Amino acid sequence: MEKGSEISEVAESLRTAHKLLFITGAGISAESGIPTFRGKDGYWRQHNPMELASPEGFAQDPALVWEWYNERKAIIRRAQPNAGHLAIAQLQAAIPNTLLATQNVDGLHQTAGSKQVVEIHGSIWQTCCTREGTLFLRDAVDTETEVPPKCKCGALLRPNVVWFGEALPVEPITHITEFILAGGIDIAFAIGTSALFAYISGWAWEAKEQGARVVEINLDPSPISTFADFIFRDKAGTVLPQIYQAMQA
Ligand code: NAD
Fold first, then answer.
1. 49 confidence band (pLDDT: 50, 70, 90)
2. Atom 16 of ligand 1 has which residue's CA nearest to it?
3. In this structure, what are the phi and psi dihedrals at residue 94, rounded to the nearest 5 degrees?
4. 192 CB under 6 A from ligand 1?
């Protein structure tokens, strides 16, 4: 199918849609200048994930891990939401019964105006105490002057993100699962994710089982490509505004 007619078909479905699911990954923020993990120029091409994003790596060298997170925070602080983030927020405003499950920790969806955002891998802007679990929100603690930063209780602080080998937060996951299993999702979008975690492709699959049409927008093939109804091998910041504009036409 021609790309133009696929855009029209998705836009047509959106005009009568009542419930949407968005699943996003690092690719949606790539056009904001934030590197992905696995794609071209991705972080894991230059770093060992087990050293920088695992409890073991943190135990071994917390200063190295914090230097990396502070570097990422500096990049994200300078970043702005791109046309893809903004189009998602517009689609959500048009069809309010939506849920946006993001693997991103950068907070750009919220800056773009998205509502019902579930951050399944945590937030780079939150910090927590490794002893007491106390949670500190954006800018509540300085993580840069003393590296690694410490809590008032003396224990190390850590970024409130999910590392390799750690469990996903229960409440957000339950929320997403219930949203999908309640049925009625018209379209499930999977955007900018390699979908290598089984739960990511599982959510898209389950939404399809419940009757949703699955739209993948990703530069590279992923496990979701094997069952998606529409596949756009193009940038999210190009495709999503086209879909939104076609829906308005
Ligand atoms: P990933 O790096 O594994 O995959 C990114 C995918 O996005 C790739 O398949 C790539 O083809 C695609 N992509 C790149 N640029 C794109 C664009 N402009 N438009 C559409 N697609 C594009 O990322 P992932 O699947 O999110 O999983 C890895 C982990 O990365 C997650 O746990 C997440 O927490 C973390 N992460 C987050 C950020 C962030 O918050 N911005 C950045 C890097 C990594």
1. confident
2. 27
3. -75, -35
4. yes
